[in-house]
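User: Can you help me understand a structure? I only have the sequence.
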Amino acid sequence: MDKVNSITTRWNGLHISLAGRVELCRAVITPLLHYWTSVYSLPAAVINIIEKRMRNFIWGHDDINLKMHGLNWKKLAAPKEEGVREVIRSNSRFKIGNGNTIKLFLDPWCDGNFLSDFYSYRVLHRLSRDKKKNIGDFIDEGQWNVDLIPVELHQFFFQYNIQGGADKFYWHETHFTFKSAWHACRIKIQEVFWFNLCWNDGRPRWSAYAVLVLQNAVITNTYLQQKGFSLASKCVLCCKSIESGDHLFCCCDFSWKVWMSLVDICHWILQPFDSIQALALDYALKFKVNSTRTKFYRMIFTATLYYLWKERNARLHNDFYTSPNDLAKCVFWDTMDILGVCLQYVVSGF
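Assistant: Let's start by predicting it. Here is the structure, written out as tokens:
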């Protein structure tokens, strides 16, 4: 924990973006945690504390600067885990050799299940009164000793072959990896339609903020009101309506002028929508074929969401204003700078 604290403390002074903080946790702290858990049996409390430090670092939260977390940890680290003990039990198997290292009652040697999952304690009590009894005590010369096993358990025991030699504990009949464990314990959810739209070749900060927008996790005034904060909700871009995610990025007069300026610059068709989800769905369906042109439009989408949020914060905190047309130009040229190729667009007014 001291090592994690020293790492995050050193990073806090570097003014790293949200996407950068997520990537540092993924590429540096998470591998350290994987190594420690492969060498030591870390208590669950220690792992929870390390994850808490990672959450606080990602959102810029510390003892002095109290920051609100836009997404809870389960969503941020999705797909979420079900728990290590249950995963190991349901995805690990025993190969019975001599049975001297496998506990009869305490190990899940029955295809990932305990013997008590199949029989009552009354039946098991006749098998043995010693809870720490080994399976090897019921094996004689490489075979089950029928004299020591109750008759009603014969069929159950005989379905498990005795291999001979040392007992083996294996994972899914393949070599154990953290990847296989992650796939085993994660809850498989439906893929979101905006995955390829957000995670493109643009700047990581664009993708990170686009995901927050589409997850309705951007900390707007409406979001704060839902969390119990008492404050007036007014859009700083148009000064006409409440500041919600859908309004700020899609329905606001200022935002729509930015989108329309990009339509004029890039020459594509865009119709009005009442939610950012609907706009993203239309965008994803139009530009789903992988090509340089499609890649360009996807980056335009994420960059626009980022620059709209940046403009909102500049007006709110710094009293700095940019016109819709100038903001659209920033989006366009920043995207062109990343793409690194000359697309055949007629750019009027530039």
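Now, to help you interpret it: Residues 79-85, 342-350 have pLDDT under 50 and may be disordered. The chain has three domains: 2-78, 86-183, 195-339. Let me know which part you'd like to focus on.
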